[in-house]
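Section: Multi-chain targets

For targets with more than one molecule, the full set of components is provided together so that the structure can be written out for the assembly as a whole rather than chain by chain. Components appear in the order listed by the source. The example entry contains two components.
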Amino acid sequence: MDRLKLIVLWLIVGVPLAWGVAKTLQNAIRLFA
Amino acid sequence: MSATVTGRSDAPGIGAPGFLDRARTIAPPGYNRFLVPPAALAVHLSIGQAYAFSTFNLPLTKLIGLTQSAPDDWTLKQVGWTFSLAILVLGLSAALFGRWVERAGPRKAMAVAAVCFGSGFFVSALGISQHQIALLYLGYGVLGGCGLGIGYISPVSTLIKWFPDRPGMATGMAIMGFGGGALIAAPLSIALMDHFKTASSNGVVESFLVMGVVYCAYMLFGAFTVRVPPDDWKPAAWVPASQPQKLVTNANVHVDVAWRTRQFWLLWVVLCMNVTAGIGVLSQASPMIQEMFRGVLPAAAAGFVGLLSLFNMGGRFVWASVSDYIGRKNTYLVFFLLGIALYAAVPTIGRLGSTPLFVLAFGIILSMYGGGFATIPAYLRDIFGTMHVGAIHGRLLTAWAAAGVLGPMLVNYIREFQIDHGVPKAQAYSVTMYIMCVLLLVGLVCNLAVRAVGADRHHGNAEG
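Its structure, encoded as tokens over all components, is:
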């Protein structure tokens, strides 16, 4: 139960952050394109 | 690394404490401390939106004209003040409410920060719909700024208490969220404005309303899930160093005593110089790369700004974690020495025309800018102890407010002065880079001057 809570909590903050990082990297590629 | 609560849980006290009270947030025995950082991250990822406020700058200057600015539209300068005001209020509110945050506990503080930050968006939306810039300043600048300041410091001392063995890593994790918030907010703002755009509106009001609700809810999630350790708690199998290290105290210094010490003001200058050097570049990153390198288009320059944000975010976690091993003073020593070398090398890199080297140099500089923010709470904890670290950190953040004004002003004015005196645009940044070296040198000297606080200032020994 504790492990599940740990995974859920980290996903709640990790998913938006990963989305933001992916979007940023997508834009950054233009710099070297 | 995993550790659970082994200490005795304190009784909540006489009478029923409210849901937001500190007593209701004390973790039960067996609580996994890695459940706490997501709460801190939720708050910092939200308030980090401030770094992406500039995505609203242009749309806010076309509220009437829609496709281009009408004579009655706000100017970019007027809109630009909103962010400056928010950062200024961040520093002031962190200093002013630091002691209250320590007393009230992280849950109440985070909830207040959520309400302030969320309502800041709502008041701003009203101001935008009525075209009253004073309401935008009051909403995002003052109310939002209070949310930023209280939210920024609210999880810091809690994390330091949960991770006495790795305070740098713990605060670095939370403060990394502040850097990462911009990475989420920038594409989110653009997507929301696109979604709500109509023939008669550019969608800013609706975007502000949605962001107010989303950020308030996300920060409340952090407030509801945060826990503090019992007073006598320590990680399982962790033994505090019996031989105290030179700059790491086991004693505590009261906030009212701390801010009168030489060490506080030395660290104030250390943070101010490190932030001034980074923030000046960050504010001018897009025009700088376009003017120093021919052929870099605005879209690519935006990619460069995004990359800097990534380095800013990553540096917060990496450098703060490294400081747990090499010490805070040495970490800042690296920031200042490496920073001076890189700033001094930038004009040469510009002349060589190497974009990858330029990006790498500024990436490392921005990683140290973020690292400076993330390492300072642990530095304060080493020097002044854990008891009032949140409040002391709050007062030290006035250095950020000062740097927020000083950094961009230095870069802008020196650049304009150079161009007015006939220096080509591509070379107009050289003097700025050398001035940044001087600022970092001042920071280096102050960092080297930091010594342990005398025992007469420790809590219980001092008059305060």
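Helices of chain A lie at 2-32.
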